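FAQ

Q: What does a record look like?
A: Structure on top, sequence underneath. For example:
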């Protein structure tokens, strides 16, 4: 791999995106760079990190927003990381410069691209999505709007892990007045996950009497008072009415990525060391990197320290290591205080699985301080349930 003749030892490392891939890379770099003069700049359009696997718990009230979405400034206080809450508008790889909406141009020595992917735009603007804290707030506002209605019909499009977890949480939160319809284009639930997880998910859906339609396509959605959905199943067309529609199916490319070389499919081609092809000073990880691994937080979480070490190796002209992913297992939340965990051949379900999942995620919050704050708060809630 080509290296610059004189690798600058006081570089500015810009990290684009402060999600799992970007924030955890910044933290790993800050740990390595303690004795070095590296300027680490983390840029995200949001003012806070969002731990997306726990967003469902905000709908059920099992967790509070500050626990899983801490502001960067609070989280990174005392860390040698500069945070810019700004929108990245362009990346010029040849000039080694990014263009920020408010701050203007920013030069970098090394770049880490961790911009993730976006929710696929639903076919109607009033359809809700479920990917961010802002989406959770919108959904909660809608549920509040319908709170005095005696029955509530909700259609969830997409029965991937996200659709199933959301359906179970909503069902447990709303009780018997809800009717949830889970609509899925595929013929099978969760084919990418292990059979015990699949079985637990099917059981959770059946126990809650969630209506599941497989092999079903959404042709059209209209919104006049209620939503009217036009669906097809085995070439038969039918209509359906819903008070709320939530879209969890599919993702789309971040527009910034499509404009970069090799980004035509929404992901950037990378070397096994996670460097951008033809731009070795640029590292790419997380959902935006075209790798053989799934688009999950678990992958991004493992890639982050690897990228930090490889970037250090690149700066000091040492050999870089290819990234190898170790799949630790799968976990789903399946309703309030209920879940499934499958790891190393062992499957746990119910309350115990919920507890293990919660503890694992609390331990994986970005900083030890945040993990301890949340853990202490949870303990307090167990012993004094009314304390806030
Ligand atoms: C509801 C939900 C549940 C999930 N559950 C799980 C789970 O249980 N287990 C699991 O392993 N994975 C789960 N995932 C997937 C996981 O969240 C993603 O794989 C992970 O977030 C990818 O990390 P990332 O850093 O690549 O992207 P993201 O976390 O999406 O981070 C990208 C960041 O880039 C920022 N950004 C994008 N464009 C710009 C711009 N132009 N300017 C400035 N900032 C920008 C965004 O604001 C964002 O903060 C879930 C995802 C969702 C949505």
């Amino acid at each position: 791999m080509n290296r610059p003749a004189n690798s600058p030892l006081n570089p500015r490392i810009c990290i684009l995106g402060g999600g799992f891939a970007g924030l955890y890379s910044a933290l790993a770099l800050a740990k390595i760079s303690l004795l070095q003069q590296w300027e680490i700049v983390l840029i995200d359009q949001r003012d806070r990190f969002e731990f997306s696997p726990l967003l469902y718990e905000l709908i059920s009230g099992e967790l509070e927003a500050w626990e899983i979405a801490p502001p960067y400034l609070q989280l990174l206080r005392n860390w040698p990381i500069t945070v810019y809450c700004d929108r990245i508008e362009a990346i010029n790889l040849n000039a080694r410069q990014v263009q920020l909406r408010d701050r203007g141009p920013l030069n970098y020595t090394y770049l880490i691209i961790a911009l993730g992917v976006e929710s696929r735009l639903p076919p109607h603007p009033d359809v809700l999505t479920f990917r961010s804290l802002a989406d959770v707030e919108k959904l909660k506002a809608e549920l509040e709007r319908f709170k005095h209605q005696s029955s509530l019909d909700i259609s969830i499009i997409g029965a991937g892990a996200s659709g199933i977890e959301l359906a179970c949480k909503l069902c447990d939160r709303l009780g018997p007045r809800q009717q949830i319809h889970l609509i899925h284009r595929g013929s099978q639930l969760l084919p990418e996950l292990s059979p015990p997880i699949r079985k637990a998910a099917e059981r959770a859906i059946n126990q809650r009497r969630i209506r599941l339609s497989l092999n079903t396509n959404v042709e059209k959605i209209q919104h006049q008072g209620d939503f009217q959905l036009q669906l097809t199943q085995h070439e038969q067309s039918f209509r359906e009415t819903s008070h709320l529609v939530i879209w969890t199916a599919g993702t789309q490319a971040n527009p910034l990525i499509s404009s970069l070389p090799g980004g035509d499919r929404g992901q950037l081609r990378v070397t096994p060391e996670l460097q951008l092809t033809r731009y070795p000073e640029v590292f790419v990880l997380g959902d935006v990197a075209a790798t053989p691994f799934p688009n999950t937080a678990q992958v991004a979480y493992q890639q982050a320290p690897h990228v930090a070490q490889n970037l250090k190796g690149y700066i000091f002209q040492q050999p870089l290591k290819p990234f190898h992913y170790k799949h630790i297992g799968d976990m789903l939340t399946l309703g309030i205080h209920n879940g499934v965990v499958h790891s190393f051949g062992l499957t746990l379900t119910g309350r115990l699985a919920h507890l293990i999942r919660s503890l694992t995620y609390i331990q994986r919050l970005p900083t030890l301080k945040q993990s301890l704050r949340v853990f202490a708060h949870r303990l307090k809630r167990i012993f004094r349930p009314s304390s806030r």
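Q: Is there anything notable about this one?
A: Residues 17-22, 43-46, 52-53, 55, 87-88, 114-116, 130-131, 162, 254, 256, 286-288, 295-298, 300 surround flavin-adenine dinucleotide (CB under 6 Å).
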